[in-house]
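We emphasize that the prediction below concerns an isolated chain of 328 residues; any contacts that depend on oligomerization or on bound cofactors are therefore not represented. The input was used exactly as deposited, without trimming of termini.
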Amino acid sequence: MDYIRSFDIGLLDAGRFDYQMLADLETCYVIVCRSPTGSGGPDTHVHDCDQFYYVLDGTMNVVLGETEYTAEPESLVFIPRGTTHRNWTVGAQPETHIDILVPPPARGQAMSRPADPHKTGPSAPCVCHADEARAMSGPDGQVVTPIAAPRGAAGMAVNVVRAGTAAPTASWHIHNFDQLYWILEGTLTVEIAGERHDVTPGNLVVLPAGVPHRNWNEADTVERHLAFLVPASAGQPVTRSVTFGLGVALRSWLHQEALASHPCWRSCRGIADSATSPCGRAIRFHEKGLRCTSPHELEAASFSTQSSTQNGYEDELEMLYLLVNATC
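Result of the prediction step, given as a token string:
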């Protein structure tokens, strides 16, 4: 899986409204759209899912239901499912925005359909901004400023995050939801399942639920990024700390499908400290991956998790499956 997705403006038609799909996930679509002066998106239409725009540059004019808004850079536009809308650009510069559909339409289904221009959805649309008065301290020296609390049926939360200048000892953690970062300025260093990435503006970081990661700002300049949490539920734990031991490594490898074609292993649950296969092989974890070894006992089987809930380790053991041979 590609955890880092790059927006390439050169792929777009400069003379008309055009877009690039960056992420096609089970929880959402993430698209970057560009609208030259005098052009815009489709005529008045409606989606059967919630939609969010985040304006990166230029000025967007948008009609939501019967109300017209102007959205400047760093504005978030929330369009509840069933709300008729259209957007266009009349300013001197092209307008670019991130477009997120939550949840995505079913495969083979059109993303939008024509609608009555005076109809609205089940909740109120809005154009909103980061509220600096609500900024809060996050883990590893981060400052988190919310733009949108969980909204809509799918409940996506949107925050602006300023990364702390922590050393690479920032804590490894996982989430029960998908998390996406869009870099606004500076360079964000992200380690994902043991691989380091230095991510700059114009790039999307995709962190599926359960993938261990950590991030920090290694430079002496400001770093800011958007953090999209989907689906995010109010009142639920946001982060679970983990030690990057065997269980986490295996879970991350499953996400990368590195072992999908391995004939000796299948997914199972309840194995925490040791496992050997009928063929006498064991799983051994090294810094750069996994391999089958001849010993009949599991080596380097450190499996440790810390949960922010009161449920102890049970949830983590449920989530982080190990692999053991069943048939070879």
